[in-house]
Amino acid sequence: MRILHVDSNSAYLSWTAADLLEKGYPLDIRTVPSAIAEDPDNRHGIILAKSIPAKAYKIGTGESLFEARQRCPGLLVFPPDYDLYLACSDAMYDILYQYSPLIQRYSVDECFVDFSACEERFGPAEEAAVEIKNRIRDELGFTVNIGVGPNKLLAKMAGELSKPDKVHTLLDRRELEEKLWPLPVGELFMVGRASVRKLEKINIRTIGDLARADRALLRSLLKSHGQLIWEYANGIDCDRVIPNGEILQKGLSNSMTLPADVLSRLEAEQYLLSLTDRVAGRLRRQGCKASLVGVSVKAASFLRYTHQIRLPFFTDDTTTIYRYVCRLFEECWKGEPVRQLGVRLSEFVRADEFQLSVFDFEKLPEDEALNRVVDQIRARFGQTAIYRGTFANTDLKPLEGGVNDGNYMMMGGYKL
DNA sequence: CCAAATTACTTCGCACGG
DNA sequence: CTGCCCGTGCGAAGTAAT
After folding, report:
1. Of the four listed, A159, A324, A355, A376, which is most buried by Cβ atoms within 10 Å?
2. Do A63 and A127 sit in the same domain of this protein?
3. ω before A312 within 30° of 0 (cis)?
């Protein structure tokens, strides 16, 4: 097995930089302290990506723009452009596809490429990786890191070793012990904040410590997750590269931070309708129906809670789903000011395999026709071409939540 | 008035039925 | 009838990733 992991270096920022240059902007924002963040006036002030010079100011992804500006007053900030990112992602994918048809688009800026059957035609993976990296840089105007390994995990970890514009390998045990084991354990994929804290308590600080640790002890501390990260630390991973077409979507959700805290149920319901409209539209586009509906609420205090219901039938109808969304919100809302709302759908069946239940009184043919027509109008004339009357004469957007929806899945199948 | 959005998977507590 | 144990299924919360 030969797997490549291709990762665009600070993707949002690089892509914005390349786009700005193409439009005649006089400065390459990659060369100065800069960042991508949404509008803080709408309470979206969070760093989504930063340049390498900005990193020198200890500016981190996920940090508030407010904090970042305190440490780096001259920070240049640009808004994200999700359509652009999707186009860049597609362009990168098109180049990769010239080498192998077996590609898993893992996120907008990351792909796994199964190169096992390609070495005959294109030479050793390490050399092909250099060629691919250079082609993307020269033809598309942004740099990538490529990791080469015998499986997905090691390819991904190899790609992280040093940046930007680099190819790294983690091909055998020797390389694993030399390059990976000395790193802090938190650098390992799937070892997050919570796991680091627990591992510290038993004196595990590096990936090597974890690799040599007692599996039974890890199991008792971290359950199945302990087994997983122990295997990762030892370079063990049997997950296949799965083309995105073969991955079945498990759930869909849309959520939004509200422009101002919402205090009344009626006001919340406006946003919930907007969110439901959008997520149900996505569900129909996938050709699926769902039987689990959930809402999530984040209070102004940042306390978060969720509530869900299992429907005794499958549906893709906006109005039907909205009825349950309202019920769920009413049942779980504690009455305090609301900062963020979300709507989630899961437990899908394919709509074409769908069998009408004898007890299914919910699905009315008129509703089905209505949804279909609304979807078609939006597909042809844009997402704002048609919307519900409740949104007329408000400054509320009829379809809220979410970024651009590419034809890839975020996470999916990283585990056996 | 600092703290996004989306998805996947695990764990834990609880209710239910026998 | 009550207490208890156990498996199961569900929902909420937690963890992780980009």
Report:
1. A159
2. yes
3. no
Query: Do A98 and A218 lie in a common domain?
Result: no
CA of A416, C1' of C11: distance in angstroms: 25
Tell me, yes or no, if A120 is annotated catalytic.
no
Are A229 and A262 in a shared domain?
no
Between CA A93 and CA A320 the distance in angstroms is: 38
The 10s digit of each residue's pLDDT in A244-292 is 888 888 999 999 999 999 999 999 999 999 999 999 999 999 999 999 9
Give residue-wise pLDDT tens across range A103-131.
Answer: 999 999 999 999 999 999 999 999 999 99
Interior angle at CA A244, CA A240 and CA A249, nearest 5: 105
Residues 315-354 of A with CB under 7 A from strand C: 332
Residues A52 and A185 in one domain: no
How is chain A split among helix, strand and coil, in percent rounded to 5? 45, 20, 35
Q: How many angstroms is C1' of C8 away from CA of A351? A: 29
Annotated active-site residue in A38, A110, A269, A400: A110
Cβ of residue A190 near strand C, that is under 7 Å? yes
Q: What is the CA A130 to C1' C8 distance in angstroms?
A: 53
